[in-house]
Amino acid sequence: MHVLVTGASGWIGSALVPELLSAGHRVTGLARSDASAAALTDAGADVLRGSLDDLDTLRQGARAADGVVHLAFRHDLAFSGAMTEAALADRAVVDAFGEALAGTGKPLVIASGLLGVSPGRPATEEDGLVAEDLDSALLNHRQETARATVALADRGVRSVVVRLSPTVHGAGDPPGAFISTLSATARERGASRYVDDGAARWPAVHRDDAARLFRLAVESVPAGSVLHAAAEEGVATRDIAAALGEQLGVPVESVPAADAVDALGWLGPMLGLDSPTSSARTRELTGWTPTGPTLLEDIRAGHYTR
Ligand SMILES: NC(=O)c1ccc[n+]([C@@H]2O[C@H](COP(=O)([O-])OP(=O)(O)OC[C@H]3O[C@@H](n4cnc5c(N)ncnc54)[C@H](OP(=O)(O)O)[C@@H]3O)[C@@H](O)[C@H]2O)c1
């Protein structure tokens, strides 16, 4: 299969490219810079030059491929507070791919998120498929894009949404990622913090396990499916803070939810979102068996504190 991958040079993409190539597929990666293009070429992929704003290029790339995995996301906007703009830019890309692939039966696999899908109880793959009033612009818009992707199944696209754990962890996780940000904040402020009693849980998945799930999704998952890239159902955020605090040698402290933004920055409110997640249906549908390591093992191995 010839797969177009956006975000192929990113954290998950750079694990997905070798995963697809070693399974015998051909990969074309979107690259907006010489550096990203060179990294893709070195990895053995072909390159489509362009950015997420070049919707015509994306449509042409999709038509030339047998399927698309869409990982790129305007984190530059999202992590600087322009969450709605980031999510709307993503929606425009998904709509362009949908238009290009309508009626072809080709796969379109997109990355989405799990935080806040069904707070307080284990989210299943069936949750979040009807419009809900989530209290975050990014979460809300991303779930809308996920729903629009699922709906493409009715237009002859083998559309699949992979909802990722908030932490796709591993050695080399880039600085802007969630656990890296928590670690940097703890180092900077001299304390590793969690919100309230820290009982809020985050699901977690190792990068290589996530990449394997994207490969399985593009190869054979039925149209309109939602998959959960959650190897661990939920790791208490208090345990995450404690593991980071232990590695950094700083105290571990609770902060009230009302002070979460002051104490933890933009990540504060997300840290208080209890988002346990089931991946039972995903495993049944795909045979996906994550092999780890776990999030706490990766933190204790020093991957987030060196
Ligand atoms: N990592 C996680 O823990 C996690 C958790 C939940 C959801 N997700 C989602 O999973 C997807 C992949 O995440 P990631 O962590 O692999 O992201 P990442 O490391 O930040 O990589 C982002 C990728 O998108 C590309 N990109 C960004 N803006 C672009 C633009 N304007 N035009 C073209 N390409 C652009 C980047 O290209 P350059 O190489 O040129 O910068 C890079 O390849 C995203 O949708 C993300 O929100 C990730």
From TrEMBL:
Cross-referenced SUPFAM superfamilies: NAD(P)-binding Rossmann-fold domains
Domain NAD-dependent epimerase/dehydratase, residue spans: 3-221
A cellular component annotation (GO) from this entry: cytoplasm
GO molecular function, one term: aldehyde dehydrogenase (NAD+) activity
Entry protein name: Nucleoside-diphosphate-sugar epimerase
Organism the protein comes from: Klenkia brasiliensis
